[in-house]
Structure formats: structure tokens, C-alpha cells
Amino acid sequence: MKNSALKGALGALAVVGVALAAKKIGERRKFMRGIFDEYGIKEKSPFGLADKIREMNDEQYQELKGKFKKEFGKGRCCSRKDQSFEVEA
Fold this sequence. Notes:
Layout: H1 4-38, H2 46-55, H3 58-72
């Protein structure tokens, strides 16, 4: 095979990509499990989380919202500061 070294390098790169994606997914699952345990949510689904949010007061909701922004708001690809979303009426 002419390109066996290239195929091997691309295969290794694909394995590394899959491993990084699996690590990221694992970290996010661990974070969500912690949120469910902290707030005593028994149903481990988005619906259980939504039900709990409906029961929260504003202070608890803002705290939870801050935790989610801290964990998932790491927009590395683009920044909202650079984009302007002004709507003119």
C-alpha cells in the first residue's frame, strides 16, 4: 500500500479525537449528576430538571443558572462580545 503511513496517522488522529470527545462527554455527565444530586432531583432527565426549576424561587434559579453558564458557557469558537445582536424597530 502506498499510503499506509498516512492511513495510520489519520487513524491515530481519529482515535485521539474520539477519546477527547468521550472525555468531554464524561465530564458533562459528571457535572449533571452532581446537579441532580445537589438539588435532590430523582428523575434523571431534562423533564425532572424542568420540574425542579419551576419549583425554585428566583435566588435558587439564578444560582443554578450561574452554575450552568460557568460549565457550559465556554464559547471558545466565537465570542458574543464581537457580535452585535441589535434589533431596530
